Amino acid sequence: MKIDPANPADLSAQIAAAIRDAIVAGKLIVGDRLPSEAELADQFEVSRSTVREALKRLAAQSLIRTQRGAHGGAFINRLSYEDAHAQQITTSTLLLGMNDVSFDTACEARFAMERACAALAAERRSPDHLATMRAEIHRQGQPGLTDEAFCASDVAFHRALVDAAGNPVLSYQLAGAVEAMQPLMNMITFTARSRGAIVALHTRIADAAEAGDGPAIATALQELENHTRQLAQSVFAARARPAPQGS
Amino acid sequence: MKIDPANPADLSAQIAAAIRDAIVAGKLIVGDRLPSEAELADQFEVSRSTVREALKRLAAQSLIRTQRGAHGGAFINRLSYEDAHAQQITTSTLLLGMNDVSFDTACEARFAMERACAALAAERRSPDHLATMRAEIHRQGQPGLTDEAFCASDVAFHRALVDAAGNPVLSYQLAGAVEAMQPLMNMITFTARSRGAIVALHTRIADAAEAGDGPAIATALQELENHTRQLAQSVFAARARPAPQGS
DNA sequence: GATTTTCATTTGTCAGACATTTAAAAACCT
DNA sequence: AGGTTTTTAAATGTCTGACAAATGAAAATC
């Protein structure tokens, strides 16, 4: 594990990359303890501050965790689904927010992926998942719900559908995509009429899941996608009318 | 933007979180320049080293980029698809590698997601995508190809299929899932016979894409998933036989 | 007016110091 | 001997002060 002092890139970035590569390559495995900061500074022939900056970079990616005290140090961290999930949501949200991704593009991607678990969800849904879906549908029908709360419940419903597929890898990937959409969805105003349509479609999805009918879930999701995109289009059109030349 | 000095957590982690939240909330937008390290140290009432460690954490997530010199500093970075993609691959690869995710689970998730772009790919594939797919199929048929090279070509083929869906968000999400599988796929030995079967299925996929037949792509992908899982099962069974009680 | 030099600003790196945490080792007291 | 307290060593967390290197703007020069 060496670094190139002639490289113009930051030394701390090089050191972080070297250690990260060792982890990805399996040379350092979960639970292993890195040498102390002082020892690493000696090995790489840099100061302790530089080593520390490198370790902070790795900590930011949940690759290591540090412990203070006599037998403390930096340990290779087991990347949990939870950590990975949180990172993915941050990344996806920023990606969508910073790159002017159109609502249509994000919506299309999200529903395409969600339809991918329709068959598995129909096959494996547990009573727990069904109960969660029913509960969220009930909440969505209550009057006086703010748009934000409606959106949050929508996310919870779809999250339950995804989890019903019973594949943690799929859940991790999809939850990121679904939750990253939330800031975009929050821009929409849901009228009572469109809420009714959404609740009806959610009910169809829950019924189909209960009946184990995968294709019916997929069809309902397709209709939900169409409805959502139309709704967004009309909302954005109405919003653009007062200021057509708006930046 | 404040931090709590009584919080037992690292000050640098708190500062990083405060700035990250401001970015996610849109209070800091792409291109904005953060105050200089010295000014941040004054604002947060910590030393410059602590501020630097916080900034390195953000840099590790591609949230900021730094520039040296008179009018340099830390700037809010536009998260590119490329950066997000690279991060996702690292995260997914480690997640799969560290959590003993079974080959079946990962495989199921990957193909489920990939089938999600079958319809879109059939509709939008460009001659470029078809050419890439054909080229990779041709490479996969050549004798003397190592297993690693075969796997790499397999990834390139599926990458082209995903890109053919013409949705950058979908590409970003799926590419991570597909490429994260590569280390698991590399554990498999591909016999000449199974390579032939895979190439035949790839050809069917390319033909269906050319014909604009989405369902046919999905069917072929399903068969490819079945074949891959059977192959993995037999390989792992053969490997387990010499040491059935192996840890 | 164009070129060169100077200069101020900012990040990158280093060295040394002290505070804090932690677990093991040592000392101490039944 | 056994249990409790104290000490100690090792490690990370933070601070201070310094210098190097890069970079763009301003000043000086031709």
Structural account:
The structure is a homodimer of 247-residue chains. With 247 residues, chain A is mostly helical. Chain A contains 12 helices and 2 strands; from the N terminus they run αααββααααααααα. In chain A, a hairpin with a 5-residue loop joins strand 1 and strand 2. The mean pLDDT of chain A is 90. Chains A and B meet through helix 1, helix 3, helix 4, helix 5 and helix 9 of A and helix 1, helix 3, helix 4, helix 5 and helix 9 of B. The structure holds a DNA duplex (30 and 30 nucleotides).
Query: Describe the biggest sheet of chain A?
Result: 2 strands, antiparallel
Q: Greatest contact pair?
A: A-B, 58 and 58 residues
The SSE string of chain A, one letter per element, is: HHHEEHHHHHHHHH
What is the fold-level CATH name, i.e. the topology of the largest domain in chain A? Answer: Four Helix Bundle (Hemerythrin (Met), subunit A)
**Helix coverage percent of chain A:** 55-70%
Q: What would you call the quaternary organization?
A: homodimer
Count structural domains of chain A. Answer: 2
Strand order of the largest sheet of chain A: 1-2
Question: Would you report the number of β strands of chain A?
Answer: 2
Q: Assign the CATH class of the largest domain in chain A.
A: Mainly Alpha
Provide the fold topology.
The structure is a homodimer of 247-residue chains.
Chain A (H helix, E strand, L loop, with lengths): L10 H14 L12 H8 L3 H13 L3 E4 L5 E4 L4 H18 L4 H13 L2 H7 L2 H15 L5 H18 L3 H13 L1 H4 L6 H20 L2 H27 L7
Antiparallel strand pairs in A: 1-2
Helix pairs in contact in A: 1-3, 2-3, 4-9, 5-12, 6-8, 6-11, 6-12, 7-8, 7-11, 8-9, 11-12
The structure holds a DNA duplex (30 and 30 nucleotides).
